[in-house]
Specification:
This protein has about 160 residues and is mostly beta strands. Helix content is about 5%, strand content about 30%. The chain is built from 2 helices and 12 strands, in the order αβββββββββββαβ. It has helices at about 10-15, 125-130; strands at about 30-35, 40-45, 50-55, 60, 70-75, 80-85, 90-95, 95-100, 100-105, 110, 115-120, 135. Strands 8-7-10-11-1-2-12 form a 7-stranded antiparallel beta sheet, with no helix packed on it. Strand 5 (about 70-75) and strand 6 form a beta hairpin. The protein is globular, with a radius of gyration of 16 Å.
Length: about 160
């Protein structure tokens, strides 16, 4: 059966083309660790750029309806991590302030939809340099199969957000 060309929607949903070479980190690069609150589970970003969102092709998938398909981009520049909102419907927040682009400092709270993460930098090691692009914690067997498994159950008092 011949392969059909992608529709406009499928082309729009493409998150990161897989045929492009990945940018190599600079000499001062430090991996990023996002620790989920509550619970302490974490995601490590060990490349200089990652897209977070609800779409299955996002580098870090956050499967909640209030997270946009391509919600935000994390990137390493000028010796630090930054976040850029990708015109998400519900916005990206650093320390409870909406941001379009912001530098992330250790201890900052990064909120993406219903997910709140604490920002940490992790020292680069030879094992991290060869690890997968977005790596979930494997320590102590505490890792959920999906990051959504680490979320607390629904809260009736939480504000409602619209999906994009």
């Amino acid at each position: 059966m011949p392969e059909r060309p992608p529709t406009d929607v499928e082309t729009y949903l493409r998150v990161i083309p897989t045929d492009l070479p990945k940018e190599q980190p600079s000499a001062d690069y430090v991996p990023l660790r996002l620790t989920l609150l509550p619970g302490g589970r974490f995601v490590e970003i060990n490349r200089p750029e990652a897209v977070l969102g609800r779409h299955s092709r996002a580098d870090v998938r956050l499967p909640l309806p209030d997270v946009s398909r391509r919600h935000c981009r994390l990137f390493w520049r000028d010796g630090g991590w930054h976040v850029a909102d990708l015109s998400s419907f519900n916005g990206t927040f650093v320390n409870d302030k909406p941001v379009e682009t912001a530098r992330l400092n250790v201890g900052d709270a990064l909120r993406i939809g219903g997910f709140t993460f604490v920002v940490e930098y992790t020292p680069a090691s030879s094992s991290e340099a060869t690890a997968p692009y977005a790596q979930r914690s494997c320590k102590e067997g505490s890792v959920p199969g999906r990051i959504a498994d680490a979320l607390p159950s629904g809260d009736a008092e939480a504000p409602l957000r619209r999906a994009s």
